[in-house]
Design brief:
Layout (H helix, E strand, L loop, with lengths): L1 H5 L1 H5 L5 H4 L7 E3 L2 E5 L7 H11 L5 E5 L12 E6 L4 E6 L2 E6 L14 H6 L1
Parallel strand pairs: 2-3
Antiparallel strand pairs: 1-2, 3-4, 5-6
Length: 123
């Protein structure tokens, strides 16, 4: 999984020009079977990014795009459907625990990302 994250741009390079690759984020988050990507102004590649992630990470069934920064007291983000199953609910497994998560209403998806270990201890 980490290998794909590090080389997402390499996989996309066969479909996307090198100039446009500079505007594509090379990382994304996976919560349960949902991947969350961030998009820049090169949104026309969102479908290809989603397909690439789902083709390599077989556990990912849905790709959502983060369309806003964290806002409000509940640290919510706006997420838009990109590809796969049109859903925002998933079950996320971490440290042997299962979490039923509705990402549309979740308090910042960062609380469920492995890169934010400090936040996980708060839960």
């Amino acid at each position: 999984m980490d290998v794909l994250k590090k080389h997402l741009k390499n996989r996309l390079s066969q479909f996307v020009s090198s100039e446009d690759l500079a505007y594509i984020y090379d990382s994304y988050d996976v919560i349960g079977d949902i991947a969350i990507i961030r998009l820049t102004e090169k949104r026309k590649y969102s479908r290809k990014i989603a397909e690439t992630i789902m083709n390599v990470q077989k556990n990912v069934k849905t790709v959502l795009a983060q369309t806003s920064s964290v806002c409000g007291d509940f640290r919510l983000r706006k997420l838009n459907f990109v590809a796969g199953e049109n859903k925002t609910a998933t079950v996320h497994k971490e440290y042997g625990c299962l979490f039923s998560v509705m990402l549309k209403n979740a308090i910042s998806h960062l609380d469920f990302c492995t890169s934010e270990c400090g936040s996980q201890n708060k839960l």
